[in-house]
Amino acid sequence: MQKPPTIRDVAAAADVSIAVVSRVLNDGTGPVAPATRERVLKTIEELAYRPRTAARELKSGPTSSLGLVLADVTNPFFARLADSVVQEARARGSQVILMTTQEDPALEQDALETLAARRVGGVIATPTSTNADAWLRLEALGTRLVFVDRHLLGVPHADVVSIDNERSAREATEHLLGLGHRRIGFISGPLSTSTGRSRTDAHVAALTAHGIPVDRQLLRNIPFRGDQGSDAVGSLLELESPPTALIVANTAQVAAAVRRLRQGSVRIPQDLSLIVFDDNPWTELFTPALTIIRQPTALLAAHSVERALLRLSDDAETRSTVIDAEFVVRSSTAQPPAR
């Protein structure tokens, strides 16, 4: 049995947005050009579309809920982001459906299919790096996309909300250079992700700008999940000429990296200066208190929800929102040890 036509079918056949079809069905809810109104009404007639169905769809569809697809809520950064998104959406009268992917593209595809079936109007997400086609399919259904923290180059019509990754990595690197460090270890996410790529590139650019030769042995781009932060630190410490400072720009691996330093009895900052991308309260309670790049999760959430709901309400154009992170200098950085 053939499925009855949906409001999306009408919008696609008439070459208009769902919002325009809604205005035609609910006469008086917004301006529609006469020619456009006539085209939509003709399409409704040709498809034998029934407005009663539209009323049910509009109630449970694009404006009723948001999907939130996050990589890993065991990562404190994403857990705080999820909490902030839910609070912000609730304050604006919208419900949130949370899905996690564990950085697995297959799980991400399942999540997107579920959200499409639930007719969410918008999705806020930290995407994996290999699923551009799946995101484009969801977007083609009329779902508004907002990528937060990282983005996909293959999905050009999604909004992006992130910190200024380049500036943050550059500030951390220049702080250590200013203290006299020349061998700086750098641990970041995979180069296939926008955050891993941009932070690593900015670190390398800062070294080059100061005339410091780039030693690729000091760079580690590792997965977000697992315990590879520990292995990365271990391999850096075993170098013939180990680093005198370390930047951990992979938030998910901060705890593993710090644990390995403590297991190796590395004194901070006497033996090794340390900067981490994290805003977890424990970084201030650690001895010594850690110098950090503080990522403003509440602001990231607020801008993401705002953009998603704005795109839903008036078909606003896509845009990128870049938020400054805060560089907080504490006690874990100092001049390099004499060698």
From TrEMBL:
Species source reads Microterricola viridarii
**Keyword Transcription among UniProt keywords:** yes
Protein name per UniProt: Transcriptional regulator, LacI family
Record-annotated HTH lacI-type domain positions:
5-60
| Entry keyword set | DNA-binding, Repressor, Transcription, Transcription regulation
Is Protease tagged as a keyword? no
Reading the lineage from the top rank, the first entry is Bacteria
Q: Which InterPro entries match?
A: HTH_LacI (IPR000843), Lambda_DNA-bd_dom_sf (IPR010982), Peripla_BP/Lac1_sug-bd_dom (IPR001761), Peripla_BP_I (IPR028082)
Gene3D superfamilies attached to this UniProt entry: 3.40.50.2300, lambda repressor-like DNA-binding domains
Q: Which GO MF terms does the UniProt record name? A: DNA-binding transcription factor activity; transcription cis-regulatory region binding
Species lineage, top-down? Bacteria, Bacillati, Actinomycetota, Actinomycetes, Micrococcales
What Pfam families does its record include? LacI (PF00356), Peripla_BP_1 (PF00532)
Checking PANTHER family in the record gives:
HTH-TYPE TRANSCRIPTIONAL REPRESSOR PURR-RELATED (PTHR30146:SF148), LACI-RELATED TRANSCRIPTIONAL REPRESSOR (PTHR30146)
Which residue spans traverse the membrane? Answer: none
**PROSITE patterns from the UniProt entry:** HTH_LACI_2
